[in-house]
Amino acid sequence: MEDYAKSHVLLEEADAFARFRLSDGRYEHTLRVADTAEDLALAHDLDADRARLAALLHDAAREIEPEGFLELADKWRLQVGDPERQSPKLLHGPVAAELARRELGIDDEEVLAAIRAHTTGRPGMGPLALVLYVADKIEPARDYPSVGRLRTLARENLHGAALESLRRAIAHNEGRGKATHPGSRETLDWLESDGATQSGIEQ
Ligand SMILES: [Fe+2]
Ligand SMILES: [Fe+2]
User: By the number of CB atoms within 10 A of the CB, which of 43, 94, 160, 169 ranks highest?
Assistant: First the structure.
């Protein structure tokens, strides 16, 4: 099968997978993130199909029960720290990436890494992961004071938009008395450092 046709079959399978596993509301969010991710990918000369694929699957594990996350993480030997034990839904990205690999046969490591990193971010995350991280925060139904500015920024500067989104997420959590996940803190440090620029991501 041609690559083009193959990737479209995969997109249809991923869509059906998300539809089957998610409530109407979360599936609709998923479709909005997929459209936003595709749009951002095109704006930054990235592969729109891979961005859409990662987006369609990013929340596919989101409706698993807390014990279910821990059981799957244990079975699949995923990394589980204290924050994940306290709030197992933090594992929905890593678990969704495993489901994508095991159930849909997805072996595109950048797609899987983007799915894995979409909740807390990850130091060294690549352009596709940045697209998904930002798309999840700015999809059209998101409504918070700085979202308009972030939407504009995201089309011009992906790295800057990810940095702003992460700063906002951390401030939002801290405002509600919630601890910052160490992974988010490390990602923030990474985005603020020169390392992110040197890896070829535009400032
Ligand atoms: Fe999510
Ligand atoms: Fe999401």
Answer: 94
